[in-house]
Amino acid sequence: MEYDDAAAERLEAVYLGPDVVSQREDTLQRISVQKGERVLDIGSGPGFLAAQIADQTGPGGEVVGIDISEQMVDRATKRSEHDWLSYRCADATELPFEDSYFDVVVSTQVAEYVPDVAKFFVFSNPADVL
Ligand SMILES: C[S@@+](CC[C@H](N)C(=O)[O-])C[C@H]1O[C@@H](n2cnc3c(N)ncnc32)[C@H](O)[C@@H]1O
Fold first, then answer.
1. How crowded is residue 13: how many other Cβ atoms within 10 Å of its Cβ?
2. Enclosing domain of residue 85
3. What is the 3-state composition of the chain as percent helix, strand, coil, each rounded to the nearest 5?
4. CB-based contact 63:37 (threshold 8 Å)
């Protein structure tokens, strides 16, 4: 997926609207991240959720956002205020991490953009899906 600056800014404006802010709060409650945890945000986009997660893990944790769009990764990286929060370009269906490296894996509003959605969900243990 490609976003020019105008498209990225439009998406970010939507993601700062009250509905999506409230959805993020709901997600944060559901995943209940603890201090020191390692968290992966798949399809992190503008990085708003990952940034809030990094506030919760604190510096003893590690938060990584991956996104298939280099533009999104660049914008989220520029916005990052924590050195334990990083972003990188990667495909949700080919995660470049060891199995079980992360304590929590989250992904919001991404699966619908992944053509091979079965490959996307193969990374999840259905028992752990919230
Ligand atoms: C609608 S945005 C959601 C952003 C973020 N998860 C949120 O809820 O604020 C969808 C994001 O998924 C990313 N994306 C789409 N397909 C992807 C894939 N195969 N692997 C990784 N990211 C992908 C897009 O680039 C975009 O940033």
1. 11
2. 5-125
3. 45, 15, 40
4. no
Where do we find the tokens 């752990």?
Answer: 128
Judge if the beta carbon of residue 57 lies within 6 A of ligand 1: no
8 in contact with ligand 1, CB cutoff 6 A: no
Any ligand 1 atom below 6 A from CB of 37 = no
pLDDT tens, residue by residue, 3-35: 788 888 898 898 899 999 999 999 999 999 999
Above 90 in pLDDT, residue 86? yes
Total domains in the chain come to: 1
Q: Name the residue type at position 13.
A: A
> Residue 129: its pLDDT value, please?
65
Q: How far is the CA of 61 from the centre of ligand 1 (A)?
A: 23
Asked whether residue 106 is domain-assigned, the answer is: yes
What is the mean pLDDT of the segment spanning 76-99? 95
Report the 10 Å Cβ neighbour count for 14: 11
